Amino acid sequence: MWQKISIIIPVLNEAQHIQVFLLALQPLREQGHEIILVDGRSEDDTCTLARPYVDRMMSANRGRAKQQILGAKMATGQIFLFLHADTQLPPNSAQIILNALAVNQSHGSLWGRFNVRLSGQHFLFRIIEKMMNWRSCLTKIATGDQAIFVAKLLYHDMGGMPDIDLMEDIEFSKRLKQASPPICLTSTVVTSSRRWEKNGILKTIFFMWSLRLQYFWGVKPEVLAKKYYP
After folding, report:
1. What are the tens digits of pLDDT across the range 89-105?
2. Which of 18, 86, 126, 164 is most buried, judging by how many CB atoms fall within 10 Å of its CB?
3. 188 exposed, middle or buried (CB, 10 Å; 0-12, 13-18, 19+)?
């Protein structure tokens, strides 16, 4: 049943890193999986540099949700894997996902996420990682940094990715967990800590939690997006 994974990648102005990122994914293409890159109208050479390394490329209005929604429409795999362009998958990631779904489908679990590790070396990152992974399994909510994967049928049954300006991963997880709890893989993806390092670790923690609390209390995603993408 589980054979082909569609890796859906929203990008924006990633020319500096895109080739190294995509080169690491080429073994997955060789295994028969597909890479779909959805550009949010980059103003650099992202698309030109990426084109040789993807199976499908398209443009969408800026916004991760819109880009991922379009990517899912174009996907031909039985499994969707939503991957950020600053996140590195573990070795044998496809087999890890396929095995996890095969084992858990009898329990109705058709979606999941990886544990996450931040790329920085500061000791605070190790604490943050553990809290993120623990919180995710406890609340059954995954974030985009954790490389969410989902069976295509469940994706459509639960209404797909919500088209909102921010917190789409949170809202998406809320939809999916109505059907089943996530498969919390212990295998680890490595995501860039550049935002944390640029803006300050503690400052970023408080900022992100502030956004999530505001969302919880009903602040509209488009209002939060203006704060996240100033």
Report:
1. 999 999 999 999 999 88
2. 18
3. middle
pTM here is: 0.95
**Alpha helical stretches, state H, 75-167:** 93-104, 123-139, 152-157
- Provide the 3-class DSSP secondary structure of residue 143: coil
Q: Is 9 helix (H, G, I), strand (E, B) or coil?
A: strand
Strands (E), 28-176: 34-39, 56-59, 79-82, 87-88, 111-118, 149-151
How far is Cα 41 from Cα 109, in angstroms, rounded to an integer? 35
Average pLDDT over residues 36-52: 96
Domain range annotation of the chain: 5-228
* Bridge partner list, 9: 37
Q: Are 57 and 39 in contact (CB under 8 A)?
A: yes
Residue pair 8/83 in contact (Cβ under 8 Å)? The answer is yes
- State the CATH architecture for 5-228: Alpha-Beta Complex (3.90)
Q: How distant, in Å, are the alpha carbons of 29, 79, 176, 225 from that of 3? A: 13, 8, 21, 36
Length of the chain in terms of residues written: 230
Q: Report CA-CA distances (Å) from 74 to 33, 57, 70, 105, 168.
A: 14, 10, 7, 25, 19
